[in-house]
Amino acid sequence: MNALPKPGSKADRDALRREMAAAGCTAADIAVEMRTRFRMRPREAWRHAHGWTLQEAADHFTQASSEGPGRQFVAADASLAGKWEKWPGPSSRRPTGPVLVAMSAAFGCQVDDLLDLEDRRELSPSDLLALKSPERELSPTPSGSAPAPPAPTGRELVRLAADESAMWARWAEASNVGDIALEQILADTRALASDYLTSDPVPLFLRTRTLRDRVFALLEGQQYPRQSADLYQAAGYLCGLLAWMSSDLGHLRDADTQGRTAWLCAELSGHNDLRAWVLSTRSKVAFWDGRMRDAINYARHGATYRPSGTVTVLLACQEADAWSQLGANDEALSALARTHDARDAMSGEDQIGGIFACAPARQENYAAAVYLRLGRSADALSSAVRATALLSSQPVRAYGTEAQIHISEAAAHLDAGEIEGAIEALAPVLALPPDQRLAPVIQRLGELPITSLRPSESGHAATLRAAVEDFCLDSAPRHLALSSGDGRP
User: Fold this and answer.
1) End-to-end Cα distance, the chain
2) Can you tell me the distance from the alpha carbon of 49 to that of 45, in angstroms, rounded to the nearest whole number?
């Protein structure tokens, strides 16, 4: 037996429209009934009163905007039409004056008919005044209408000007977010940045995306300038976190896109620490994308903002990392030396922490990788050992950093011809669950000099090579590539 259609379904709407049209009801009558019965926004109700799809409505809006005298052209599509309908709800877009004019012309109604109290609360003072104006700047003027009344003068003019100022003040004073909500958003951002060190990336990616969307929706509303700056700051950190995660999941192009949006948010917030962290994130993405010069430039640019906290340490680490990949020994060692100077000169604490922090163990991890590329295996092994000791004393152990430390230790053992030491160092890495096998770890494993082992060690080499290949085949990036696209395998 087929289930009955839900109230407000297409079948319900079509049946209601046919019944009312047969009874002689107008489109306005049908729109009112749609709004009342199915709790629709006014613009959506008018569209269903005409029986149009979103694309059909968009086509009518575009055509109507090009036909009336003095109208501003509107290029509409189905996506925009849907967002205009849902405004001022989440993921919507405010219909401008020309859009409302085009809609009213297409639907055969007045602009007033397309707006309810919720819409009017969100409209700007200038739009509200235009709606009140006798000249009806937003509405199409019917042919043969009466001439507009004379402009106000004298005392009436003064009173109107005062009313206009009071209306603007009420609009400017309104805010869609409070200080407590902003504090909670920042706390949630800190939690996500911290959880990423120890949690599986895909579920955390979904949580981060949800919070980012919430912040974006708030930014589309009205708030005080200082609150907007705080929201842009949160959006910048969240997009930066999504960039970091996308890179770790092997999606470097998407990571770069997130990085660009994060940079825009940092610029709009005017927050130097965020600017530095975004540039650190973009340096990281560029490094794993093989763009070493970009990685160096981003790291150097980030340091020019003189941020507080540990980002100055990380930026110097990243610059050293990229120079070592290019084989520039002097530049790499110089940048590595600056990591210690940066830590000594720190002027404050990290605001977010978690992935947006550079603890001493993370610093030593970078040093180990740099020394390996410079052919200084003994120094690399010393740094890896120090990093392991430091990591064991931290309250939160980042599995990605810990894996890379063990890989550096294994590489140092292999350079020294100590295959058993390498196998022992890699044991914790190869035991990682598949959902925590990130792209940088896979790439670092691929750089191990397993093929350079002596013939007498070929058996160990074959075993190690097979274990690494199995590890890479059963990894988070591979699972994501084979998933259904909704975040579930």
Assistant:
1) 32
2) 6
- The closest of 122, 148, 123 to 134, measured between CA atoms, is 148
Question: In the predicted model, is pLDDT for residue 339 greater than 90?
Answer: yes
Task: Sort 70 into a burial class: Cβ within 10 Å, 0-12 / 13-18 / 19+.
Answer: exposed
CA 82 to CA 34: how far, in whole Å? 17
Q: What is the DSSP letter of 52?
A: -
Whether the Cβ atoms of residue 394 and residue 197 lie closer than 8 Å to each other: no
Helix axes 399-415, 419-430, angle to 10 degrees: 170
How many C-alpha atoms does 112 have within 13 Å on its Cβ side? 6
Contact present, 355 and 193 (Cβ < 8 Å): yes
Q: Give the tens place of pLDDT for each residue, 16-72.
A: 999 998 888 899 999 998 988 888 889 999 999 999 999 899 889 988 887 766 677
Which residue blocks in 133-178 are alpha helix, DSSP H? 154-173
Q: Which of 397, 413, 333, 319 is nearest to 359 (CA)?
A: 397
CA–centroid distance for 64 within its chain: 36
Residue 146 class from Cβ within 10 Å (0-12 exposed, 13-18 middle, 19+ buried)?
A: exposed
Closest CA to 9 of 34, 46, 42: 34
Cα dihedral 141→147→150→151 (10° resolution): 10
CA distance 479 to 187: 30
Secondary structure class of 71 (helix, strand, coil): coil
Tokens representing residue 83 in the block: 């967002």
Tell me, what's the pLDDT at 149? 54
For every residue of 431-449, DSSP letters joined together read TS-GGG--HHHHHHHHTS-
CA-to-CA distance for 458 and 452, rounded, in angstroms?
A: 10
Give the whole-angstrom CA distance, residue 3 versus residue 362: 57
- Rounded CA separation 288/439 (Å): 9
Question: Is the model's pTM score more than 0.70?
Answer: no
Domain positions in the chain are 10-137, 360-489
In which element (H, E) is residue 336 found?
Answer: helix 329-344
Cα distance between residue 488 and residue 473, in whole Å: 18
State both tokens at 66. Answer: 């090009």
Note the pLDDT tens digit of each residue in 189-245. 999 999 999 999 989 999 999 999 999 988 988 888 999 999 999 999 999 999 999
8-state DSSP, 151:
P
